[in-house]
Specification:
The protein has 301 residues and is of the alpha/beta class. It has a domain at 7-167 and 200-229 and 265-282: Rossmann fold (3-Layer(aba) Sandwich). 42% of the residues lie in helices and 17% in strands. It contains ten helices and 14 strands. It has helices at 7-18, 33-40, 53-63, 82-100, 134-153, 175-184, 203-215, 234-244, 271-277, 285-299, and strands at 24-27, 44-47, 67-70, 107-113, 120-123, 157-162, 164-166, 189-191, 197-198, 200-202, 223-226, 232-233, 251-253, 266-268. The strands form six sheets. The protein has a four-stranded parallel beta sheet with strand order 3-4-6-11, with helices on both faces. A two-stranded parallel sheet has the order 1-2. Strands 5-14 form a two-stranded parallel sheet. Helix 2 (33-40) links the parallel strand 1 and strand 2. It is globular and about 55 Å long.
């Protein structure tokens, strides 16, 4: 597993460990020490950088995996450097593909993003890749590489294009944990006007989708959108969190300017995941927000 110390990796690791899997985690030397310590309890750490082809190849040779979950990525909102997006997402994915090209793996599962499509509501997998952000452009290029390797070399890979996952272990700078932690700390929340819509999907539903893609006999090169199917204005999500918490602070809407590359509409049609994988989201937004609140309140107590 690459990207193991992130939101998806930490939760996927918990699930795989509970199922008794032998897990190898490929992690940067400077990765979060506490998360590394927790991962060591469930598997073996292989240290290296995703942008280093020789380190990726050595990790694959050491692990000799049956399944590979390639989750390594840059952050959506915190990196604006095109070079960093390219090196981590595109070059990193190429390194993984090359390292696995002659392997006997059963499945490579790569996490993409709905940002690959650009702006739109209920976007389907056959929508043109028209990214409007640097991260979306990098993810789209990585998707093209994955599908090209499946055609050229028969690599059994599939792509999971995620909407906006949230839940335990999410970066505290992101919307939902930032709102929760600010409210717990008695701090008003400075935000944009909040009209941009996002398709929020709880992390347990994301993990279930990843495992289904790994286990089901879907065609190589397949891409699956994973989302709730509903674009919700972020101001409504912030308001709901504060309501659940008893409105301890105010949301200062309009206090922060909207980013120039902001995607205003972003939601996915995930019916292909339903018909081909038997997947559908099990956790409602309200349930997910309450679960997130409980986890962050305990984790940051």
């Amino acid at each position: 597993m690459t990207g193991a110390t992130g939101l998806i990796g930490m939760n996927l690791a918990r699930r795989l460990s509970a199922e008794g899997e032998t897990i190898f985690y490929f992690c940067r030397p400077a990765a979060n020490p506490r998360r590394i310590a927790l991962l060591k309890k469930t598997g073996q750490i292989l240290t290296g950088d995703i942008t280093d082809a020789s380190a990726v190849r050595a990790a694959v040779e050491k692990a000799a995996p049956d399944l590979v979950f390639h989750l390594a990525s840059t952050a959506f909102n915190t990196v604006q450097d095109a070079e960093e997006h390219y090196q981590v997402i595109v070059h990193g994915t190429l390194n993984v593909l090359e390292a696995l090209r002659t392997s006997t793996i059963k499945r490579l599962v790569v996490t993409g993003s709905i940002a690959e499509y650009g702006s739109g509501s209920l976007l389907r997998e056959d929508h043109p890749l028209l990214p409007a952000t640097l991260l979306g452009a990098a993810k789209a290029n990585a998707s093209i590489l994955v599908q090209t390797f499946t055609r050229l070399y028969g690599l059994p890979a599939a792509i999971v294009r995620l909407c906006s996952p949230y839940g335990p272990w999410e970066d505290p700078r992101r919307l939902i944990p930032h709102t929760i932690l600010s409210a717990l700390g008695g701090r008003d929340i400075a935000m944009t006007e909040g009209s941009q819509q996002r398709d929020f999907i709880y992390i347990d539903d994301v993990v279930e989708a990843l495992l289904l893609v790994a286990k089901r006999n879907v065609p190589s090169g397949s891409a699956f959108n994973i989302g709730s199917g509903e674009g919700i204005p972020v101001r409504d999500v912030v308001a709901r969190i504060l309501e659940i918490m008893g409105n301890p602070v105010r949301a200062l809407m309009g206090a922060v300017p909207t980013r120039s590359d902001e995607i205003m509409e972003m939601s996915a049609d995930s019916s292909s995941a339903g018909s081909q994988l038997g997947w559908k989201p099990a956790i409602s937004l309200d349930q997910g927000l309450r679960l997130s609140l409980d986890w962050f309140a305990k984790e940051y107590a």
